[in-house]
Amino acid sequence: MAQAYDYLSGWFEILNDDCDYPKWSQYFIEGLSRLGAGKRGLELGCGSGAFCRALTRAGYEMTGADNSPAMLNEAGRRAAEEGVRVQFVLADAAALKTPERYDFILSPNDCINYLPPKKLHSAFSHIARCLVPHGVFWFDVSSEYKLREKVANNMFCDDRDDVTYVEQNKLLPDRVETDVTLFVREGELFRRYDEAHTRYIHGEAALISALAGTGLQILSLEGHLGEIREGSDRLNVICKKA
What we know:
Blueprint: H1 12-15, H2 21-35, E1 40-44, H3 50-57, E2 61-66, H4 69-82, E3 87-90, E4 102-107, H5 117-129, E5 131-142, H6 144-151, E6 155-159, E7 163-172, E8 175-186, E9 189-200, H7 204-211, E10 216-223, E11 234-241
Parallel strand pairs: 1-2, 1-4, 2-3, 4-5
Antiparallel strand pairs: 5-11, 6-7, 7-8, 8-9, 10-11
Helix pairs in contact: 2-3, 5-7
């Protein structure tokens, strides 16, 4: 079975067209402005680059980083197609190293869920070293409530004209293991592709503990798009480097 996003990369934004990327991006743009963040930013786990493109159009100088070559290829293709200049680089979120320091680092839409708990503290420490003094680190995770109560042991499907998506989820004590199957139209036939994903369940207390001693101070904890945390599908953790 293929690794996460080897095949899903080309369909990711299409299949997520209900998540309202413009509204989600505006939440970050307004928040970064409110925090007084500078203009040079890195998106860690950028995927196909939707947030990078939106922030670049808003006047930010963005770099997108991901550990999936397939996703980076898709991100570069979409940015070129839209005439948006973004630099994309291959990077490991668990041990981030960059030649320059950034005013802010964003890591939205489950990137941190792909890191096992034992790697969180080290990952946050590496991220802190990639920020300028007083730089902002803003990440979110799919919440414990979402993964345990909504995703766990459930199947989700999305049937389109050119692609059918099937997701089967299995709950384990600290994670959800997901088998993704795509049926992609190729001429008169459909070809099947399979890949595996593992998302770790990070509760609020565990994230706070993992951030301790990294030089990152938590400024606020918010649900998705700033809503209340209880019952939200996402937990946003907004930090500033000392």
